[in-house]
Amino acid sequence: MRETPTGTPVGVDDPYEHAGVCDHLTSDGRCRFALDRAGDDPEFAAARRAVDYDCVAADEDCEFRDCPHYRSTTDGRECVRCGLESVRMAHDGSRPLLEEHHLSYGESASTRGRSVGTAGDDGGNSDGSPSHEITVALCRWCHAKIHNSFARIDDDVEPDAEAFAAREERRSKEQTEFGFATARERRDADDS
């Protein structure tokens, strides 16, 4: 199983099995990285410009993982392991129910700010590890289980009872905020 740079498990053998389309892919199939950040990797941008900025994966012999700038990050709407949906409270400092979980880290601290560069045929570093940032959303409870044990992303599990309780507490709070009360009713409630 793959591990984080600190040695804890990430819950998958191959991060690319859980990765989606590239974050840089536009709706018309072009590479946003080459369009917007050409100065970060001029050679890559020139190669994309030569083919009208088509995504690397548009070539029938290539996949997203073949691109040195591939990145697939989560939308954070539900836990990929147990299915718990996100309920976010505006203007509330409470901890979110869902967290971003890295299956693969695109850059180490030593390469941050530079192009990751030489991805091999498998989209990885010279040591065989993936060089692309790939994240999924996990609830706090699944996140802890994956990092603290041998739990896997693709385990067929139900949300923890604590997770259900936290979600329902937020939903009930959200429902009370939808109710309308006049200023007089709120003042009377505060006086009692």
Topology of this structure?
Layout: H1 32-36, H2 42-50, E1 71-72, E2 98-104, E3 133-139, H3 140-148, H4 161-178, H5 183-191
Total number of distinct structural domains: 1
Element pattern in H and E: HHEEEHHH
- The overall pLDDT average reads 85
Overall morphology: flat
Largest sheet properties: 3 strands, mixed
Give the number of helices.
5
Structure characterization notes:
By secondary structure, this protein is an alpha+beta fold. The protein has one domain. The chain has five helices and three strands; from the N terminus they run ααβββααα. The chain has helices spanning 32-36, 42-50, 140-148, 161-178, 183-191, and strands spanning 71-72, 98-104, 133-139. Strands 1-3-2 form a three-stranded mixed sheet. It is flat. The N and C termini lie far apart (59 Å). The model is unreliable at 108-123 (pLDDT under 50).
Summarize this structure as a short list of keywords or feature phrases.
5 helices; 192 residues; alpha+beta
Quick summary:
This protein is an alpha+beta fold. It has one domain (15-159).
